[in-house]
Design brief:
By secondary structure, the protein is of the alpha+beta class. It has one domain. Strands 1, 8, 9 and 10 form a 4-stranded antiparallel sheet that branches. Strands 3-5-4 form a 3-stranded antiparallel sheet. Strands 2-11 form a two-stranded antiparallel sheet. About 30% of the residues are buried. It binds iron/sulfur cluster (2 copies).
Length: about 160
């Protein structure tokens, strides 16, 4: 269920991988073109998606994602945050003089409801910046943690 960010205290990702099995990932057109060579993307009625194999994302190995950096879809980078142009008043978040409507998906077991923490607000700013294409590097949201987990497993 998507809840307005103002109802969320905090969130962290422990790379459980559940969201990758639950959802079909929408792609922007340039992401579709970038991943087309893999054969694991598809177009349906003018929209683009990762093509699942059964319930699984083809880019998930175990619990972890092999797409990192430029290749990881923006929807995956943002999860569990969802940024919309319309929504309810409790979801309003002002950034750069603009108004965004930010929701958080409570399907992720690590979303904690309550009074928003400062770290949650920083994550939302980061998510909006990624959504707008203002930043590419990830400091505190999902994909970086998955990468770190993956690296630490490879290193040991
Ligand atoms: S975002 Fe949540 S559901 Fe997805 S991998 Fe991280 S902890 Fe698991
Ligand atoms: S591309 Fe990576 S993060 Fe996105 S659903 Fe697939 S495995 Fe998960």
């Amino acid at each position: 269920m998507d809840v307005p960010w103002s109802r969320v205290h905090s969130w962290h990702c422990n790379a459980c991988g559940r969201c990758c099995k639950e959802y079909v990932v929408p792609l922007r057109a340039h992401e579709y073109l970038k991943l087309k060579w893999t054969g694991f993307v598809e177009e349906r009625y003018g929209r683009f998606y990762i093509r699942k194999i059964g319930k699984n994302c083809p880019f998930q190995i175990g619990r972890l994602c092999i797409l990192q950096g430029e290749l990881k879809p923006i929807a995956c980078k943002l999860y569990p945050f969802k940024i919309r142009r319309k929504g309810d008043e409790r979801a309003i978040f002002e950034y750069g003089g603009e108004r965004f409507y930010v929701y958080v998906d409570t399907f992720c077991p690590n979303v904690v409801l309550g009074r928003p923490s400062e770290s949650l607000k920083r994550m939302i700013i980061e998510a909006i910046q990624i959504h707008l294409g203002e930043r590419r590097d990830i400091e505190s949201i999902t994909c970086n943690r998955k990468l770190l987990t993956f690296k630490s497993q490879v290193d040991t």
